[in-house]
Design goal:
elongated; 8 helices; about 400 residues; eight-stranded antiparallel β-sheet; alpha+beta
């Protein structure tokens, strides 16, 4: 097999498929599997972590004799360091990949192609055309559990419909349901692991149309010459509708998302590393009052806004990080709604966010620095004498 290809296009394709085996992948499979079709003039690269696969096609490639090879990761590093416009890749019968450009030539050993965990990607018979999918995923994926043994929380539930499409995620402290209006022309329900969602988000851009479908219990997304396929999870996943039925808001206020974000960040400045991260939120008739405390330090902020149903004076306590995570990806106004137990709803144009309350801040006096021992004092004295 020998082919000559544009270097930048090849590097981009190689880099794209390697996202399937990055940190957090189910199984790290080094390198990429490449096939070259002389008749179609297409080189196809595949990266995988067994559960998720990414395929990238390069068209109009000068190919002489088709074939297949496992590309070692070092090949990408070599090609990144040159400014050559095109490169040649050739294999021989001894399992060696020859890379040449200009006056340079590299000979790299490769693994047998049967060692790469190839799996035939089944393509759906029906697709939904989707625009704005990266934005929908961005507003939900941050809330999912990233690690641990509770896998049913490490997922994002995607529901595509011609009207309102949603993406839901949760952990033990929060739940989000992001919404996208008129972004899909078809229907599909998918439950994807958070690691797969993170990979998919890197491959897509908001201004490109994605075709999504399901085949053989795998979710498949096609965007131009890129194909993403992953095994769907079989657990129940998030269910925000059931939880919303049990939350009856009693206290409400409307505020700009960025105004509230700035106020939370201002109030929490007093809390340093090692402090109990906690913020108290109280809705007053004239605005939202936020207070924080640590040993010997306090912080507060006030956001003016009309509130017809203020909270009781003690307010409610929350983890500030849980609140700022949502506000950082949200624009426009949000409605702050709190029930009698302290469960908070943040509703914006991008969706609904549920924050669970917590106990009041635990202020602990910092441990005093240990005094110098007698031995340490003697060592210090000896060093002082030597310097003198």
């Amino acid at each position: 097999m020998k082919l000559t290809v544009n270097r930048s296009a090849f590097c981009e394709a190689f880099k794209t498929v390697l996202t399937a085996a990055k940190n957090g992948a189910a199984v790290k499979v080094p390198g990429a599997y490449m096939t070259a079709d002389e008749n179609r003039k297409i080189a196809e690269l595949t990266g995988t972590d067994i559960i998720t696969s990414v395929i990238k096609r390069i068209r109009n490639v000068d190919i002489k004799g088709g074939g297949e090879v496992i590309l070692p990761p070092v090949a990408l590093e070599i090609l990144r360091r040159t400014k050559a416009g095109s490169v040649s890749l050739e294999t021989d019968g001894n399992g060696v990949l020859h890379i040449s450009f200009g006056f340079s030539r590299y000979d790299l050993p490769t693994k047998p192609v049967n060692e790469f965990p190839k799996s035939a990607v089944a393509f759906p018979t029906v697709y939904a055309s989707v625009t704005g999918l990266p934005s929908l995923l961005k507003h939900a994926a941050f809330a999912a559990e990233k690690s641990g043994e509770d896998r049913q929380l490490q997922c994002v539930k995607i529901r595509l419909t011609p009207g309102i499409s949603t993406a839901e995620a949760m952990n033990r402290k929060r739940m989000v349901s992001a919404t996208g209006r008129n972004i899909s022309d078809g229907e599909a329900d998918m439950l994807l692991h958070i690691s797969a969602v993170n990979i998919l988000s890197q491959l897509l851009t908001d201004n490109k149309t994605v075709y999504a479908g399901i085949a053989d219990k795998r979710a498949v997304f096609v965007c131009e010459d890129t194909v993403f396929s992953t095994v769907m999870m079989n657990c129940r996943g998030p269910g925000i509708e059931e939880l919303l039925k049990r939350i009856i808001p009693e206290y409400c206020a409307d505020i700009g998302a960025k105004e509230l974000l700035k106020a939370v960040e201002t109030a929490t400045v007093c809390q340093l590393a090692g402090d109990d991260r906690c913020i108290n939120i109280c809705l007053t008739p004239m605005g939202i009052k936020l207070t924080c405390a640590a040993y010997g330090r306090t912080g507060s902020a006030f956001v003016p806004t009309l509130c017809d149903s203020p909270t009781p004076e003690p307010g409610f306590n929350y983890d500030p990080q849980i609140i700022t995570d949502f506000l950082r990806v949200t624009a426009g106004n949000v409605s702050v709604k709190i029930d009698k137990r302290g469960f908070m709803l943040l509703e914006g144009t991008d969706g609904i966010y549920i924050v669970t309350p917590r106990n009041a801040v635990n202020i602990v006096k910092p441990k005093a620095k240990p005094e110098k021992t007698e031995k340490a004092e003697k060592k210090t004295a000896k060093k002082t004498k030597k310097v003198a």
